[in-house]
Amino acid sequence: MAVRLDELDRKILGELQADGGQSLDDIAKSVGSSKTPVWNRIRKMREAGVIRHQTYLLDAEKLGFEACFFVLIRTSEHDAAWQKAFLRALQGRPEVQEAHRLAGDIDYILKVRVENARAYDTFYQALISEVKVHNVTALLSMEEIKSTTVLPL
């Protein structure tokens, strides 16, 4: 369910998305308000779950994670026990940055960030040893053209 936001809330969220590390004074100045109302609105949006948490975006390549794979998974298993085991396997693997259950021919897609192809193979072997999958296709991203966490407010 969507939360009602006014124009000032949207401006504040835009500033936080652009740079979550900026000071309240800087945010207030940018949105044309004062510090206390901005802080109160941020607090309320946190309480409402609009703002889930603060984090910093790191440069994966500069940290040695040069390979990004999109992993397409088809499974013949759809019961609750398999799904629970699959979820547990994914939660325990920090190299899985995103996981989505899909409609259509592919059941799941994963975004996996690793150092290289050998590291991907290690991930793959560990995953298939934990959960039964029908088919796995790994697609190596040759170039990241666009990546953002910014929502179009």
UniProtKB/TrEMBL annotation:
PROSITE patterns: HTH_ASNC_1 (PS00519), HTH_ASNC_2 (PS50956). One of its GO terms (biological process) is regulation of DNA-templated transcription. Residues 5-66 form the HTH asnC-type domain. SMART domains: HTH_ASNC. Gene3D superfamilies: 3.30.70.920, Winged helix-like DNA-binding domain superfamily/Winged helix DNA-binding domain. Pfam families: AsnC_trans_reg (PF01037), HTH_24 (PF13412). PANTHER family: DNA-BINDING TRANSCRIPTIONAL ACTIVATOR DECR (PTHR30154:SF17), LEUCINE-RESPONSIVE REGULATORY PROTEIN (PTHR30154). This is ArsR family transcriptional regulator.
